[in-house]
Amino acid sequence: MTRTCLITGGAGFIGCEVSKLIEDDFSSIIIMDSMHPQIHKSPEKPAALSLKANLYVSDITDPSAWDELLSKWKPDVVLHLAAETGTGQSLTESTRHASVNVVGTTQMLDAFVRNEIMPQKIVLASSRAVYGEGNWMNQDDSIYYPGQRTNEQLAREEWDFVESSFLPMRSASTLSMPTSIYGATKLTQENILTCWCNSFDVNYSILRFQNVYGPGQSLINSYTGIVSLFVRMAKQNESIPLYEDGLMIRDFVYISDVASAIREAMINPDANKKILDVGSGYGATIKEIAELIAIRYGAPQPFVCKKYRNGDVRHAQADISDTLATLNWTPEVTLNEGMNNLCDWIDLQLG
Ligand SMILES: NC(=O)c1ccc[n+]([C@@H]2O[C@H](COP(=O)([O-])OP(=O)(O)OC[C@H]3O[C@@H](n4cnc5c(N)ncnc54)[C@H](O)[C@@H]3O)[C@@H](O)[C@H]2O)c1
To answer: Ligand 1: distance of its center to the CA of 19 in Å?
Structure first.
């Protein structure tokens, strides 16, 4: 077996987990990661990364870094994870998000052409952020797209869309209408990759992740990872503030379940040319998550602070039926089990 897997952004949360899971599938695992200081305390190879992985500390937007890497390695499979991921931050630092997520992707694809290296397969980590508020159902069962909540609506504390109910997101039937710059860049990444792969007959799979959580998630990045933020507050005996009314739904999917979905997408031809939703399929309210954490640490009850963030969506939950039917995969870790594992891990890290 002489197969090479290249993982961009592979030193991050998801990349480290995947690198260990695919150790026996590839003879070489190459990581291209800038070791972004917002995520990594140091540019050293993270302990969580597979021992087999070769780390190249370089930026995906830099064409010369690509040429250097591709002069040494010919990747058979590429997992494209490198991204700027701060949803809120992307509104005020849109150029940085666009240059890494959009131009970083085009630099990668141009480098493959320039170096005459065509991978057999590219798997892209996309996001539920591409859906924005997604699709909702009126009382007469008709489906509509409410679009982005206005500032006036939010200032009036009208969190939900009136007289309608949210429907889980499914790539085959839910239109993509992002409400954040981050979501817009992820959708652009999808579109660029699809055109390029179809033109060059390269297989691809696009996976739209819901909220990924678990041991290994960055504890220093204050722009992502609501669960680790809640844990830190509860550990300091603070009451967790709940934005809006705390009843926003999120689909928390455990890191090992995400890694196994990625591995399946890499090796299973049924995933070729598909866009698949990766979540637990279960929707939990933010209040439910905060209460679980507060109880664990004996912290005071969470409280509704009614703050809100532009670009945040009201509800997000995946319809994973197509993913279950396509991949030899099913999410295995329950929310309780996963939260306990994450809290145990954070306790170890923070003492
Ligand atoms: N974690 C989630 O909940 C979630 C949800 C939906 C989608 N995603 C997507 O999954 C992918 C991986 O997410 P993650 O949670 O592992 O994030 P992460 O921040 O832990 O990892 C991203 C990695 O990319 C690297 N990186 C950033 N900019 C780079 C650049 N210019 N060049 C090279 N490397 C760069 C960072 O150093 C980091 O190691 C991202 O594309 C993200 O959009 C994640």
So the answer is: 14
